[in-house]
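Quarterly update, task 2.4: (S)-3-hydroxydecanoyl-COA-bound model.
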Amino acid sequence: MIQTETQGRVAVVTLNRPKALNALCSELFHEINDALARFDSDADIGAVVLTGSERAFAAGADIKEMKDAEFISNYKTNFLGHWVEQISRMRKPVIAAVNGFALGGGCELAMMCDIIYAGEKAVFGQPEINLGTIPGAGGTQRLTHAVGKSKAMEMILTGTVHLSAHEALASGLVSAVFPPETLVAEAIKTASKIASKGAVSVQMAKEAVNQAYELSLSSGLHFERRLFQATFATKDQKEGMAAFAEKRKPSFVHE
Ligand SMILES: CCCCCCC[C@H](O)CC(=O)SCCNC(=O)CCNC(=O)[C@H](O)C(C)(C)COP(=O)([O-])OP(=O)([O-])OC[C@H]1O[C@@H](n2cnc3c(N)ncnc32)[C@H](O)[C@@H]1OP(=O)([O-])[O-]
């Protein structure tokens, strides 16, 4: 259900369940989680690209699989909790390369990533209200942070207002739009650039940016300053600054 490959220090994870538009059934999600966990602990990988097909990044959670679920078992088994935690725990950067539908859990999956690139025909939406439910994997929170309350409310409460790639770009949900056929290559290019930096400072930078969602400004600035100070314990900080002073390219060792 997924395909994985590596290109240099970049791992590419491709969702491949075409008959169901990459609907996120539990088997698919386990495979995604296993692959991400493997790449997160692989010292030869510096960044990950997560993508789907040209038709669909993912059309949401698998409705047919979950339609008969009950509250008690959802609660007892912490339904969705285990699925979503691995991606949130990723310490390495993940770029979502979104072509086609990113609906419901598909949109939420993209928003769990650190950067979203969209193909020109991408469609972002949270249609759960049409199924008698609500977003359950971060849609009400991350979409609101990304596009603001009014647009998030409009999308989530109607279930029919979706964002095109260019609307998603204008609203800040995605950082760039590319033709569908070059999208993944562009994502890999950016991931390679990130993976060429010192891995420790990349992870610290990711951690610090993510704290902007969790902390007050003064606590966030304090957190950032401590990590900044800590980078001076790394070989890569010594190398990076020495290389600048000596007018040469740095050669990072990721320590
Ligand atoms: C990261 C965390 C992940 C978990 C998140 C959980 C929480 C989340 O907030 C809840 C959801 O996502 S609720 C979900 C929110 N998402 C939605 O409500 C979107 C539901 N999907 C749609 O509205 C339409 O399929 C599209 C408009 C995407 C495409 O329309 P089109 O171009 O006419 O294509 P088509 O003919 O319709 O589809 C082709 C085949 O794919 C099948 N399939 C597709 N999506 C499926 C799904 N989610 N399920 C199962 N199957 C799905 C479809 O049945 C058909 O199979 P068949 O055997 O050949 O009949």
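Highlight for this quarter: Strands lie at 2-7, 10-15, 47-51, 56-58, 94-98, 101-103, 115-119, 123-125, 163-164, 176-178.
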